[in-house]
Amino acid sequence: MGDEAPPRPIKFLARVFEELGLVTIYRSPIDTKLLCIQRFVRLFAYGGSTLILVSYLSALGISDTRIGLFMTLTLVGDVIISLFLTLVADNLGRKAILCLGAALMSASGTVFGLSGNYWVLLAAAIFGVISPSGNEIGPFRAIEESTLAHLTPAAVRSDVFAWYTLIGTAGTALGIMSCGWVVNKLESQAGWDYIEAYRVIFFVYAAIGAIKFLLACALSKKVEVEKSKPQSDAETTPLLSNGNTEQPKKKSWFALLPEFSKESKIIVVNLCVLFALDNLASGLAPLSWVTNFFKRKFQLQEGKLGSLFFATSIIAAASTLVASSLAKRIGNIKTMVFTHLPSAVFLALIPIPSSLSFAMMFLILRSCTQSMDVAPRSAFLAAIVFPNERTATMGVINVVKTASQSMGPLITGLLVERNLFWVAFIMAGSLKASYDIGMLFLFAQHKPREEQPEDQRHAEENERRG
Given Cys at both, which of 69, 123, 142, 261 links 464, Cβ 3.0 to 4.6 Å? Predict the structure, then answer.
């Protein structure tokens, strides 16, 4: 008797698991799994701290304008530190930079838990790692995405990035909900005041930074970039040198910086302009200001706020799996644009209703597609440049994104002071829609490196090297 074919239900389940990317994640190396776990614990901490950041600073007696300035300067500090760390990460070691970032994260949480001085907190936020938006901050994401692309075949890269995104969004959701109800319990049942309850969250944030440090230490050497071997001296040194052998040049710090091909430079510049628009919009309506908007307008307590944004984050996380399947059929760019554009429209509509139910409806509708562009975007960025340009490219783009985002909270703070909170949402939605149209116009027909003719790739590689 020959081997019997598996029953239809088994074949159907196998197909579903493969379509959802579960098979890819199961077969991925341990380093890929460790990077996903690191993202979960990091975003769990970011979610918790973001829910209370504005309220904590406000409870310390800081004005809305100074809170906006605080968030802006925090992002500016992240720009400077992240730019340096991501540009030199491949040469100094990805694992070492991830460990350093985790240590800075833990130090920031400790300072926030101990001090109430505006300038001390600002210094900790600038030189450490505190997320004012609930999204990525610091050098982590650029290095991790570059490493995941390095560890994953191009054919299944969208699956890995989809789960990487989903796991991070789930971490944010759980962090928001856990923080909301912990603060609520400490205030209502234990009788703690706002500031004491908020500081507990920052001490937990510091502890999570220490856990992330241990996870980064567990990574293997396979996460490091493969460095090209220089040509042997025996092949290049003349037999009769006549004593005129040149001394090797000393390496400078500039040798740590990467080189880009001409085409990659044009691509990176175009992407930086578009991502600047998108992230200025994100800065105008970051999670910390959005939660504060619902608290101010509808008087929602932290527990209910946590539950509301937990639900929206879970919806956003689940939608990323649909994005991976969609990207395999219509491509990364079309998936990015056709899913992100509706979320931009719903973002602009959030402040219009005077009813909590309708405002929540637009918030939930936005969450259905707001994260569907993340995994295809990561896969697109990983495929559009050469492998040894990935970390630097993602680092430069993330720095531009953070720099443009840094102006948003200050503008929103000024608008809030003048009772124009709603303007920030409309501006944010309009800018995000402009980004989507620009991406479709510039990159809809652009082919990834893997799909370009082999002779063209070799010619560009040789041009870049020499």
Answer: 261
- Pick from 351, 286, 330: nearest CA to 50: 286
Query: Is residue 40 within 8 Å of 168, Cβ to Cβ?
Result: yes
Cβ(45)–Cβ(105) under 8 Å? yes
What is the pLDDT averaged over residues 440-466?
61
pTM over 0.70: no
Of 149 and 256, the structure prediction assigns the larger pLDDT to 149
Assess contact for 382 and 395: CB atoms under 8 A.
Answer: no
Question: CA-to-CA distance for 397 and 270, rounded, in angstroms?
Answer: 10
- In this structure, how many other beta carbons lie within 10 angstroms of the beta carbon of residue 184? 17
Q: Rg (Cα) of the chain, in Å, rounded?
A: 24
Residue 264 is encoded by which pair of tokens?
Answer: 């990659």
Structure tokens at 437: 């149209």
Q: Which of 226-230, 244-248, 328-332, 352-356 has the lowest mean pLDDT?
A: 244-248
CB atoms within 10 A of CB 257: 13
pLDDT tens by residue, 85-133: 777 777 778 888 889 888 988 999 999 999 889 999 988 888 777 877 6
Write the DSSP symbol of residue 28: S
Burial of 11: CB neighbours in 10 Å, binned 0-12, 13-18, 19+: exposed
266 DSSP 8-state letter: H
Mean pLDDT of 209-232: 79
Cα 220 from Cα 228, distance rounded (Å): 19
DSSP 419: T
